[in-house]
């Protein structure tokens, strides 16, 4: 397949894992001298915002607007799963959906249906699994390729009836700055600190905090620079994540790479060994009856760090190889 241009749709001004990955894709495609060129393309709904300064390392000032897309058969448009409502605007270019967050797609679908039809009908249709606001089913079926960032996404796409030949695994990699902190273990020997993401799983995490011994320091990773996050991860013994894991999340990988033990729930991608490859004793269902067992595992990590950290060696090795694998997969898919 001879590809001339690849347009990667992205919201402007949003700093989260998904948009960073969209920037990384553009950067990686443009590494290859194969005649194709990738463009970070801001969606029309967010064109008034300012680009994220931290992402300049990937594209500089070369982002373009959605109106500049050349809609012809030699080009590809990559739609993150939250932009499927834009697919009908393009008739000729090949359309690839990149499933970065299954849960965000489902939430947007539910929210749209609720707005259009009311909360009771939205709940009813969510329960039977046939929500189809913004003609999402038509968009999913019409895509030329489905790129899946996680095995959780592959499982979901297959459940929508998509055949294997249309599915490609395309994960991602964490920022190199976290890999550089990967051997900084000595700093944390006397620290009983637990890190967590307060944006996800907050209610259940608070129950753990309330039930835990007073000697544990709980630190929410919020409103911090990348450097501050890396410093916490490289000086703490444990990161816990009882969120919904909508894709192969970055926080658990960043934590493990920086030398933290990791405890998660079993939601979303966390239930897939391929996405969160940690031993089973570090995964729990987020139920109240499991709180004593979770706290016991937390104390085990804090009190036996030198032993517990060895359980994550395989996970760290997998993470360290993800950048090379991403480059290989991008070259295969877009050459």
Q: How does this model look, in words?
A:
This protein has 335 residues and is an alpha/beta fold. It is 38% helix and 14% strand. α3 packs across α4 (119-128). The chain is globular.
Q: What top-tier CATH class of the largest domain fits best?
A: Alpha Beta
CA-based shape = globular
Rg, alpha carbons: 21 Å
Arithmetic mean pLDDT: 87
Order of helices and strands: EHEHEEEHHHEHEHEHEHEHEHHHH
Q: pLDDT below 50 for ≥5 consecutive residues: which ranges? A: none
Q: Which architecture of the largest domain per CATH? A: 3-Layer(aba) Sandwich
Beta-strand residue fraction = 5-15%
Write the layout of secondary structure elements.
Elements: E1 5-10, H1 17-29, E2 37-42, H2 56-59, E3 64-65, E4 76-80, E5 94-99, H3 102-117, H4 119-128, H5 136-142, E6 145-148, H6 151-159, E7 167-169, H7 176-179, E8 193-196, H8 202-211, E9 217-220, H9 226-233, E10 238-241, H10 250-257, E11 261-264, H11 291-303, H12 305-308, H13 313-320, H14 322-334
Parallel strand pairs: 1-2, 1-4, 2-3, 4-5, 5-6, 6-7, 8-9, 8-10, 10-11
Helix pairs in contact: 3-4
């Amino acid at each position: 397949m001879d590809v001339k241009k690849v347009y990667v749709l992205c919201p402007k001004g949003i700093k989260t894992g998904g948009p960073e990955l969209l920037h990384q894709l553009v950067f990686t495609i443009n590494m290859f001298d194969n005649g194709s060129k990738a463009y970070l393309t801001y969606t029309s709904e967010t064109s008034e915002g300012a680009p994220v300064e931290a992402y300049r390392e990937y594209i500089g000032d070369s982002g373009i607007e959605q109106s500049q897309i050349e809609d012809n058969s030699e080009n590809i448009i990559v739609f993150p799963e939250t932009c499927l409502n834009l697919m009908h605007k393009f008739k000729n270019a090949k359309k690839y959906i990149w499933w970065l967050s299954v849960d965000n797609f489902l939430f947007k679908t539910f929210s749209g249906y609720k707005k259009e039809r009311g909360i009771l009908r939205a709940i009813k249709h969510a329960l039977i699994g046939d929500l189809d606001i913004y003609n999402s089913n038509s968009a999913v079926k019409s895509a030329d390729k489905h790129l899946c960032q996680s095995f959780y996404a592959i499982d979901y796409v297959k459940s929508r009836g998509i055949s294997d030949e249309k599915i490609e695994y395309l994960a991602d990699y964490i920022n190199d700055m976290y890999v550089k902190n990967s051997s900084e273990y000595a700093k944390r020997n006397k620290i009983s600190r637990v890190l967590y993401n307060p944006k996800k799983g907050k209610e259940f995490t608070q129950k753990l905090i309330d039930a835990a011994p007073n000697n544990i320091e709980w630190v929410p990773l919020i409103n911090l620079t990348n450097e501050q996050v890396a410093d916490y991860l490289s000086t703490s013994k444990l990161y816990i994540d009882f969120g919904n894991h909508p894709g192969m999340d970055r926080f658990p990988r960043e934590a493990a790479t920086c030398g933290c033990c990791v405890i998660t729930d079993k939601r979303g991608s966390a239930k897939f060994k391929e996405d969160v490859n940690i031993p089973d004793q570090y995964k729990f269902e987020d139920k109240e009856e499991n709180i004593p067992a979770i706290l016991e595992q937390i104390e085990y990590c804090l009190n036996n760090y030198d032993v517990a950290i060895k359980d994550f060696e395989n996970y760290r090795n997998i993470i360290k190889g993800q950048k090379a694998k991403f480059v290989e997969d991008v070259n295969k898919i877009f050459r």
